[in-house]
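> call design_seq(struct)
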């Protein structure tokens, strides 16, 4: 390979690497949030003091066949919180905030005991410490059923 060819190959390689790094950075910024009921989302935005929405997921957690919205959000630099916007027949309200994981936040719905309403499972991590928590909606609030490592990942 002569010098000229090597320079061209070098330039192309740099370009490709640069592109790769750029798209990796760009993907980080893309928030891949699902489509949800706008009314629920607007209610959250209007009634909760938050810095940034991290993740949310829609599901019926009080067995009234109306979708409710679980939202995990950045409260401040040190804390992520979770609330549920409950859409009752007569009104909408937000549950008391619970601590939520800092990174890789996943929200799942599952009827873990196969009875009554669906439970909410929140999982995530902080600095590589993985944890999860299981919650059930009772008496207008989310209650902790069980979990593991939530102190280390919240
Ligand atoms: Ca519901
Ligand atoms: Ca259940």
């Amino acid at each position: 390979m002569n010098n000229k060819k090597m320079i061209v190959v070098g330039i192309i390689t740099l370009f490709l690497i640069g592109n790769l790094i750029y798209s990796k950075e760009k993907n980080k910024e893309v928030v891949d949030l699902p489509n949800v009921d706008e009314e629920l989302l607007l209610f959250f935005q209007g009634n909760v003091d938050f810095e940034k929405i991290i993740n949310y997921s829609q599901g019926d957690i009080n067995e009234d066949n109306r979708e409710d919205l679980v939202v995990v959000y950045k409260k401040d630099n040190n804390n992520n919180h979770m609330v549920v916007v409950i859409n009752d027949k007569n009104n909408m309200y937000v549950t008391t905030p619970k601590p939520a994981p800092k990174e890789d936040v996943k929200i799942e719905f599952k009827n873990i005991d196969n009875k009554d309403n669906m439970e909410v499972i929140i999982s995530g991590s902080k600095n590589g410490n993985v944890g999860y928590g299981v919650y059930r909606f009772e008496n207008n609030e989310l209650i902790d059923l069980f979990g593991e490592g939530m102190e280390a990942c919240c």
